[in-house]
Amino acid sequence: MKSTTMRFNGQLLNRGFWLYCWKVSDGKREVLYVGRTGDSSSKNAASPFSRFFRHLDTRESAKGNTLHHQLKRAGMEPSECSYLLSAYGPVFKEAEDSVYVGFRDRMAALEKELAYALRDYEVIGNHQSKKRLEKTDEATLKGALAAIKKDLSLV
Predict the structure, then answer these.
(1) CA 108, 38, 147, 140 torsion-angle sign
(2) Into how many domains does the chain fold?
(3) Which of these, 18, 84, 125, 139, has the minimum number of CB atoms within 10 Å of its CB?
(4) Where are the alpha helices (DSSP H) in 6-60?
(5) 122: in domain
(6) Are 35 and 110 in contact (CB under 8 A)?
(7) Nearest-CA neighbor of 34 among 9, 58, 51?
(8) Reduced to 3 states, what is the DSSP secondary structure of residue 112?
(9) What range does the domain containing 138 cover?
(10) What DSSP state is assigned to residue 64?
């Protein structure tokens, strides 16, 4: 048996539209995983903490455990990895149905561009959104990229 710890900032409990990036290492390899809250399968923008839990759910019936599957696909055993997380947001507050889809689409474009901006590192996952980055979101992308690089010691 071993002891282990987890520390997090309570801001991660706030619902809304966030960008995030995990830096995951199994001791031999280090990968990045870029994601967002406010996905297409729901009309609710979850908190980053809630989303992170679902990402690593190992139950056979689990839905939304994309990071778990991507790590396995990359030949990494999730239970043997260390994780460092940076979340940026909320970019938008949780929204009513009438504006949710617009925010969701803008976040999809931001997620895709963030993954592309980190292409000098090994980024796992699919970031194939057809949504285009809006000119008004360029500053958000720049801020997220700078914060995430700093938080994950990528600079």
Answers:
(1) positive
(2) 1
(3) 139
(4) 48-55
(5) yes
(6) no
(7) 51
(8) helix
(9) 14-151
(10) S
Half-sphere exposure (Cβ direction) of 37: Cα atoms closer than 13 Å: 28
At 83-97, the pLDDT tens digits run 999 999 999 998 777
d(CA 89, CA 141) in angstroms, rounded, equals: 11
Q: What is the mean pLDDT of residues 15-29?
A: 96
Give DSSP secondary structure letters for 66-108: HHHHHHHHTT--GGG-EEEEEEEEEEE----HHHHHHHHHHHH
Domain annotation covers residue 6: no
For 104-155, strand residue ranges (E) read 123-124
Q: What is the pLDDT of residue 42?
A: 67
The pLDDT tens digits for 29-56 are 999 999 999 877 667 788 999 988 888 8
Does residue 35 fall inside a structural domain? yes
Amino acid letter for position 96? E
Q: Is 22 in contact with 43 (CB distance < 8 Å)?
A: no
Tens of pLDDT, residue by residue over 98-154, are: 788 899 999 999 999 999 999 999 999 999 899 999 999 999 999 999 999 999 999
Question: Distance between CA atoms of 25 and 32, rounded to whole angstroms?
Answer: 9
For residue 34, the tally of other CB atoms under 10 A from its CB is 23
Q: 4 in a domain, yes or no?
A: no
